[in-house]
Amino acid sequence: MTGRNLLTDHPELYELRFPDPGHLAARWTESVLGRYAAGRRVLDIGCGTGRDAAWLHAAGRRVVGIDTSAAMLAHARSRHPGPAYLHADMRGFDLGRTFDAALCLDSALLHCHTNDDLDAFLGSCRRHLAPGGLLVAEMRNGAYFLGRHDLLDAPRTDTVTHDGVTRTSRTTLWIDHGAQLLRRTRVWTSDDGSPPTEQNSAWRLLFPQELRRLLAAHGFEVLALYDRPGPRTEPPWTEGARPAGTADSDRLHLVARRTDTPETSLT
């Protein structure tokens, strides 16, 4: 059967499948915000379970998290209180306030599949950032797949146990070249006799130069665009680590600043 996203619908299962006991993603984010002297007001776009937002809140930031998943937002409010959690679509939102920084972690930005989606996202970010505000993003790197296929060679199998039930996922990735998407099919089976569940999702593959052009068109100046180290690289980011000058690995890290330049057309 084909269903909704099992991990999104069950946030506690998501946190078991993708643990972050050392709060590496949030600590990396705080280091970036500190390096560029960002103010305290932070918008976490695609906040998910709220782990990162809550850690940043505890570190002294005034955080608002937005997401489209009602289950994730309910989990965040219950398990990771502190920030304000709001239901909103990243492809077009109006919160009636401005922030000193907008975050888009764990490839959330790549859920903008079309050029119109990306324009709407960047336009919303710009409108919600104070002058000089930062956009900080962490995502898959489209350039990594030029001439490489190691992530596409064979399905990946993972298991996670929750409430006495062991679930196994078999994940296959492939590239939809015409749509410029990295597509994923994930089939879940479990040892409790439940029927298999198939889920399909995709990420937009963005290339560094393409990303620079999009940001410039929406009035952003790129301050940093690099592949490592970060919270999901090997080796992972550590305190005091400096960004590399390359953009060739499978992750991409972005820091951009809103400028006073008005938006311009890409056409």
From TrEMBL:
GO molecular function, one term: methyltransferase activity
CDD domains documented for this protein: AdoMet_MTases (cd02440)
Region (Disordered): 228-267
SUPFAM superfamilies: S-adenosyl-L-methionine-dependent methyltransferases
GO process terms (BP): methylation
Assigned keywords, A-Z: Methyltransferase, S-adenosyl-L-methionine, Transferase
Biased composition (Basic and acidic residues): 248-261
Coiled coil stretches, renumbered: none
Transferase as UniProt keyword: yes
InterPro entries noted in UniProt: Methyltransf_25 (IPR041698), SAM-dependent_MTases_sf (IPR029063)
Residue ranges of domain Methyltransferase in the record: 42-133
Protein name: Methyltransferase domain-containing protein
